[in-house]
């Protein structure tokens, strides 16, 4: 459970840094999202999940 909470904490740190350091870039990127097909967003989301799981598996293995 401690590892899970640490992961959530790191997520919040990274997310907060994006909002704090590059808010205008974040707004531009969010404005582009409706133009990207759902299938492409889904593919890159699943690829990110797979990469994250793979990295955790390699680090913790």
UniProtKB/TrEMBL annotation:
**Domain of life, source organism:** Bacteria
Q: Name one Pfam family in it.
A: DUF2065
Q: Which InterPro entries match?
A: DUF2065
Which UniProt keyword terms apply here?
A: Membrane, Transmembrane, Transmembrane helix
TM annotation in the entry: 39-59
PANTHER family, A to Z: INNER MEMBRANE PROTEIN, INNER MEMBRANE PROTEIN-RELATED
Query: Mind telling me what this protein is named?
Result: DUF2065 domain-containing protein
């Amino acid at each position: 459970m401690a590892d899970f909470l640490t992961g959530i904490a790191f997520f919040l740190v990274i997310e907060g840094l994006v909002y704090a350091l590059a808010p205008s870039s974040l707004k531009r990127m969010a404005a582009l999202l409706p133009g990207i097909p759902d299938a492409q967003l889904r593919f890159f989301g699943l690829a990110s999940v797979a990469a994250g799981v793979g990295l955790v598996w390699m680090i913790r293995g």
